[in-house]
């Protein structure tokens, strides 16, 4: 009985430490690529300045991405001949837009970071935040 209690206690402690170590933080990219968030903001501001409705469109992209199975960037995947993605699903077709802005953001972030380090899901989330501010 004591070994089982010890095992459960250690398992709980390990899970608590893992959850703490893997928790989301607003400054995650500060060390990996400090230019990432300013780059996203710059592209979003330019897109909203060019077309005011783009702010709402980027927010809507994030909402639609998070809708089915969580915020995972899957809305950005292109369909193939064997698989239809969320992007072209009936509920999203002609309903979501701004994909070209997300492509611009991804290209700029990869450029300033020197490599692809920012996830597409994070780009959608930060772009949504910045588009609301813009």
UniProtKB/TrEMBL annotation:
<comment type="similarity">
    <text>Belongs to the peroxidase family.</text>
</comment>
<dbReference type="InterPro" id="IPR010255">
    <property type="entry name" value="Haem_peroxidase_sf"/>
</dbReference>
<dbReference type="Pfam" id="PF00141">
    <property type="entry name" value="peroxidase"/>
</dbReference>
<keyword id="KW-0732">Signal</keyword>
<dbReference type="GO" id="GO:0020037">
    <property type="term" value="F:heme binding"/>
</dbReference>
<feature type="disulfide bond">
    <location>
        <begin position="33"/>
        <end position="113"/>
    </location>
</feature>
<keyword id="KW-0560">Oxidoreductase</keyword>
<feature type="disulfide bond">
    <location>
        <begin position="66"/>
        <end position="71"/>
    </location>
</feature>
<feature type="site" description="Transition state stabilizer">
    <location>
        <position position="60"/>
    </location>
</feature>
<keyword id="KW-0408">Iron</keyword>
<feature type="binding site">
    <location>
        <position position="74"/>
    </location>
    <ligand>
        <name>Ca(2+)</name>
    </ligand>
</feature>
<dbReference type="InterPro" id="IPR019794">
    <property type="entry name" value="Peroxidases_AS"/>
</dbReference>
<dbReference type="InterPro" id="IPR002016">
    <property type="entry name" value="Haem_peroxidase"/>
</dbReference>
<feature type="binding site">
    <location>
        <position position="68"/>
    </location>
    <ligand>
        <name>Ca(2+)</name>
    </ligand>
</feature>
<comment type="function">
    <text>Removal of H(2)O(2), oxidation of toxic reductants, biosynthesis and degradation of lignin, suberization, auxin catabolism, response to environmental stresses such as wounding, pathogen attack and oxidative stress. These functions might be dependent on each isozyme/isoform in each plant tissue.</text>
</comment>
<keyword id="KW-0479">Metal-binding</keyword>
<feature type="binding site">
    <location>
        <position position="86"/>
    </location>
    <ligand>
        <name>Ca(2+)</name>
    </ligand>
</feature>
<protein>
    <recommendedName>
        <fullName>peroxidase</fullName>
        <ecNumber>1.11.1.7</ecNumber>
    </recommendedName>
</protein>
<dbReference type="GO" id="GO:0140825">
    <property type="term" value="F:lactoperoxidase activity"/>
</dbReference>
<feature type="binding site">
    <location>
        <position position="72"/>
    </location>
    <ligand>
        <name>Ca(2+)</name>
    </ligand>
</feature>
<keyword id="KW-0575">Peroxidase</keyword>
<dbReference type="GO" id="GO:0006979">
    <property type="term" value="P:response to oxidative stress"/>
</dbReference>
<keyword id="KW-0106">Calcium</keyword>
<dbReference type="GO" id="GO:0046872">
    <property type="term" value="F:metal ion binding"/>
</dbReference>
<keyword id="KW-1015">Disulfide bond</keyword>
<feature type="binding site">
    <location>
        <position position="65"/>
    </location>
    <ligand>
        <name>Ca(2+)</name>
    </ligand>
</feature>
<feature type="active site" description="Proton acceptor">
    <location>
        <position position="64"/>
    </location>
</feature>
<feature type="signal peptide">
    <location>
        <begin position="1"/>
        <end position="23"/>
    </location>
</feature>
<keyword id="KW-0349">Heme</keyword>
<feature type="binding site">
    <location>
        <position position="70"/>
    </location>
    <ligand>
        <name>Ca(2+)</name>
    </ligand>
</feature>
<feature type="domain" description="Plant heme peroxidase family profile">
    <location>
        <begin position="23"/>
        <end position="134"/>
    </location>
</feature>
<dbReference type="InterPro" id="IPR000823">
    <property type="entry name" value="Peroxidase_pln"/>
</dbReference>
